[in-house]
Amino acid sequence: MVSYLADTNVLVYAFKGIEPYAGWVRKAIEQKTLFFSSIVVAEFLEGAQADEEISLKMLLDNLETLSVDRVIAEEAAKYRKLFNRKSKKIWMSDCMIAATCKVNSLTLVTADKKDYPMDDITIKRLK
Fold this sequence. Notes:
Distance between the termini: 22 Å
Largest sheet: 5 strands, parallel
Number of strands: 5
Strand content: 5-15%
CATH class: Alpha Beta
CATH topology: Rossmann fold
Oligomer: single chain
């Protein structure tokens, strides 16, 4: 079975009840195929309302959150160097999310595939 890492935008839309994001997150939780990156958690909490913050923390108590370790950090740095040379500016946080997927063999689920120009990870775009 495929396991997924949800991008921050998917989480934001899901918490707002926007489909197909909310339904997809619910299904992935039920199937126990959803992981979060500590980067996604930080980005979400930065803009979360108090009730969303409480709900996310309750959700995280039941799901695995993957931290950025040295291997992920090194992969993220490679992505950043590569795409900055190609004049495709990419955020370090997106590089770390992509590296987390690569290192853990996860499919990245996002609403905006253009943020992830990597060709060595699997990306699923919800729309």
